[in-house]
Amino acid sequence: MLILTCPCCGVTGEETEFHAGGEAHIKRFGPGSDDEQFHSYMFAKENAKGVHFERWRHNNGCGKWFHAARCTTTLEVFGTYSAQTYEPPKEIKDKISARRPGWSWREFA
Amino acid sequence: MSTRLAAGGRLLNKDRAYNFTFNGKRLTGYQGDTLASALLANDQMLIGRSFKYHRPRGVVASGAEEPNGIVGMGEGAKFEPNQRVTTTELFDGLTCASQNHWPSLEFDVGAINTKLSRFLPAGFYYKTFISPRPFWKHVYEPIIRKSAGLGKAPKERDQDKYEHFYAFSDVVVIGGGVAGLQAAYAAGKTGAKVLLMEQTAHWGGRAPVDSAAVNEGKENINGKPVDKFVDEIVAELEKMDNVTMRTRMMGAGVYDHGYVLGYERVNDHQPDAAGPRHRLWRVRAGHIITATGAIERPLSFAGNDIPGVLLASAVRDYAINYGVSVGDRTVVVTNNDDAYRTAITLKTLGLSVPVVIDARVLPEDSALMAEAKAQGIRVMMGHAIASVKGGKRVTGVEICSQAGEGAVLETIDCDAVAMSGGWSPVVHLWSHCGGKLVWNTDFAMFQPDVDKPPLGADGNGFVTPAGAANGALDLGGILADADAAGKAAATATGHKVGKGKAPTAESVEEAPMAPVWLMPQGAGIKKRMKAWLDYQNDVKVSDVQLAAREGFESVEHAKRYTTLGMATDQGKLSNINGLAILSDALNQPIPQTGTTTFRPPYTPISLAAIAGEARDERFQPIRKTPIYGWHEENGAFFEPVGQWRRPYCYQKPGESVHDAVKREINQTRERLGLLDASTLGKIIVKGPDAGKFLDMLYTNMMSTLKPGKCRYGLMCNENGFLSDDGVVARIDEDTFLCHTTTGGAETIHGHMEEWLQTEWWDWKVYTANVTEQYAQIAVVGPQARKTLEKLTDADLSSEALPFMAWADITLGDGIPARAYRISFSGELSYEIAVPASRGRELWDLLLAVGAEDGITPYGTEGLHVMRAEKGFIMIGDETDGTVIPQDLNMQWAISKKKEDYLGKRAQERSHMADPKRWKLVGLQTVDGSVLPDGAYCVAEGTNENGQRNVQGRVTSTYYSPTLDKGIAMGLVLHGPDRMGEVIDFPKVDGTIVKAKIVDPIFYDKDGEKQNV
């Protein structure tokens, strides 16, 4: 059972306090997009082996959504950060680079 | 025979005798006995039968690894199957019975299987019962099911209490042997908060037994006997406030990020004591030390499963701990020095050890061997057991050369065999969460690869193995390793380590063991078919070899094909021996074969402990509306709706459910009905962008709704499927109140928050789920207006408050209310929302003033029938997660003007626009009967699986009291274009119901009744 820290209320809690919401930083494609774009947005999710960015909600706590940067193989948590952003903040990326040299954003090393 | 010795028994209190029964036989033991030691003390060697061949089974081990000694314990509400006798503490009045035999333990009909074992090899079931195909369902499966299953499920409800306990600790030490004690001490000294748990009732593990086995204090710690060291360190630990110690508590599992499950058997040994029987500890650990010891391996020789063949360590445990001799004449067979401790122990106690059969050929005698010889014990090096003689009890052994094929050199009479194939560290808890293993060639065992521990949230290892569990098998090495582990765990959790040193120990030096996986080395098929690996599931050396020959090369496949290690002991004894045989058959080294996966719990834990307090009224919260008390007092027949309990109908004395529903509907349609609609979801959406936000959430346009008005809306998910519906009321320019379905309130609120927080976070909108803040009562029927007017001065006329409008009014004694003129029944209807605290008051008032018009409360079934009569859809009936609004002919509720809403793009996909999608219609049976719920409408021909083609299905079906016949809605291929056509719905009994496709609105199509 994972431990995560909610960046909104600051509580460090058990996984049962949170709800996983799939991949983070997905761009929405609505009306006007072609089938390929919509398919990719709706269904083609990353299934990374290693560094991954996920959406979580503190649903048995403050109710806020946030993002977590995590390694899917070792379960290391590099950090959690606001969901109101288009890409991971620099300090999170730096932390990942320190732990996983050569890694780069969106390459899902 | 096995018997109680006059001397010995370090764990016994011989002043306190306990009576117990086994299969109805009255027996006696002592306080401190395990059930196993007490049974052996009474010469009860035969305890059960094996699973497949029903072979006689006796105790083989003395701890958690025991595969054979399992019994049904207790009676009635206290009955529990599959209890291990080796881990069950004896108490006065214990009753137990053997399992898996018929008609009796001594004479078992199923034992015929052992004579047929040639015809029941690995994979027997898969091979034999595959054809002819239909036989599986009708012939084979019923017969196999009858003989399957181990033990019997209890028939009565469990009367005991169970609880969960949450704990947090810097360091959790699993295992209370000398390693665990030393690790806990080293960590505790730094001030770290330590939790130490031991699965048995005693501290010290097996070191006191092993050291007691060698004479004259040759094995000691700090110059003291090991027993004394244990007493002293336990006393020291008890003095530390930062250390919590628990016996009878097993580390059941290690999970992600340092989560540990502890299984405390609080009262198993004193079933009449107060308090819970079991307690499940849910522990968050900063660092975990697994000081879980090691388990001795059996040797694989013909007849190694005959009762009386035990592990060598178990034989000396029974002698030293419980003063029980397993036999008068015990042959010891080994591939290592440790088993000599057993020979020496028995000889010292005055028992006979005719020979130690040692598979090794050593250049010179080791210290323990020399000591055994000095006591006059005969030692045969390079020899093996060709086969064990006996049926329900060992009568002798035939001896051969280990190097040969088993030609018998000598036969020796004996009534017990003590075997040792070396030791395997208990790596289970290390491995549960991903700790890796390495193969130790010297000791032929897997041990933790300390460079690859399970990793925590910070990316650092959070488990450290200690002592024998880490591959240290000598006393000095164990203590040094445990001390280092304790200090490392304390450091890892931010504590400063002082200068304390590990205790020093003296122990007897042991000669190297030799890996021996089969005895004798060249054993032929007849011997291999009698050399057991898994005693409980009857897996033999020959089965694993057969599996390898048939291509089950992966260890996980071989396990499932042979059932090796799949019994209740999960292969604690059998796995390494099985792996070695498999590796040999595949001609590859053991590490290349690898192990199967170690999964929690370490030994079975009770389901009741997992449930804890979550039973009966505490199983889940029950949500009650403010009017719940009235429902209870007035004959409500409740149904669960999510966590709510809603009245299905209100039964009058002597009235059937069906008649009650009929009465409620007729009364509502003709005069006046009353519905507790408080469970309806109510979400306030407020802010300058609230209209824009609701335009995205609903398929219709909500931003154009005028304050004071209501609009019915549909919500889809981003994949286009209908997820919820309800009426939206605009309160003011900035504020909307969204009604959701009863079950949907929390989900829809979550759905709104998700989009607001993660996609449109710059929109100025705030949401609040106020479902429980309001009681909501629907006043329904032709007399609704007249009744409400008695409670208010407000103008409720259709001009002042028309259909689909709302108004704030005051009712009765100043109850602030909001009246929505909305209708889910098709009648004139006002839904009145009041503060929850005044809900019951209003309900009572309405009952009083409505009495003269026959006011009749109705339940959810009345609600459902009335909405179906009107052709209104119900989320969850007409929708199932694959239905889009267009399927329900609800294009009218989809805005053409909006550029975007959730689900719009998805609904543009070709499959969603396919004219062949089944569409909603009404269905009316030709004979007036009620269609079966969920029935399919068949079409001509069959599909590729030979099943009838289908062209539609029933989504809602009821008896309509208003029309006095069955009515239904369904989704049918080209349905709206086929009005009047009669289609076929086969029933489960094979008969067919014919139904005509009709308009789904069965009652008041023009809405004249609701719009007055």
Structural account:
The complex is a heterodimer of chains A (109) and B (1012). Chain A is built from 2 helices and 6 strands; from the N terminus they run βββαβββα. With 109 residues, chain A is an alpha+beta fold. In chain A, the strands form 2 sheets. Chain A has a 4-stranded antiparallel β-sheet. Chain A has a two-stranded antiparallel ribbon with strand order 1-2. The mean pLDDT of chain A is 93. With 1012 residues, chain B is α+β, with helices and mostly antiparallel strands. Chain B has 26 helices and 51 strands. In chain B, strands 9, 10, 12, 13, 14, 15 and 29 form a 7-stranded mixed β-sheet that branches. Chain B has a 6-stranded mixed β-sheet with strand order 42-43-44-41-35-45. In chain B, strands 47-48-49-46-51-50 form a 6-stranded antiparallel β-sheet. In chain B, helix 9 runs parallel beside helix 10 (367-374), helix 14 packs across helix 15 (555-562) and helix 14 crosses helix 16 (575-586). Chain A binds chain B through residues 1-3, 14-15, 21, 28-33, 35, 38, 42, 55, 57, 59, 63-65, 71, 74-77, 83-84, 99, and chain B through 255-259, 284, 455-459, 718-719, 750, 753-754, 757-759, 761, 899-900, 904-906, 908-909.
Give me a quick take on this structure.
The complex is a heterodimer of chains A (109) and B (1012). With 109 residues, chain A is an alpha+beta fold.
Per the CATH scheme, the topology name of chain A is: Folate-binding fold
CATH superfamily of chain A: Folate-binding superfamily
Structural class of chain A: alpha+beta
Major sheet of chain B:
7 strands, mixed
Average of the residue pLDDT scores of chain B: 94
Radius of gyration of chain B: 37 Å
Number of strands of chain A: 6
Strand content of chain B: 25-35%
| Helix fraction bin of chain B | 10-25%
> Which strand-content bin applies to the residues of chain A?
25-35%
**The CATH C-level class name of the domain at 162-295 and 425-498 in chain B:** Alpha Beta
Mean pLDDT reading of chain A: 93
Top-tier CATH class of chain A: Alpha Beta
Unreliable segments of 5+ consecutive residues of chain B: none
CATH-derived architecture of the domain at 162-295 and 425-498 in chain B? 3-Layer(bba) Sandwich
Cα distance spanning the termini of chain A: 24 Å
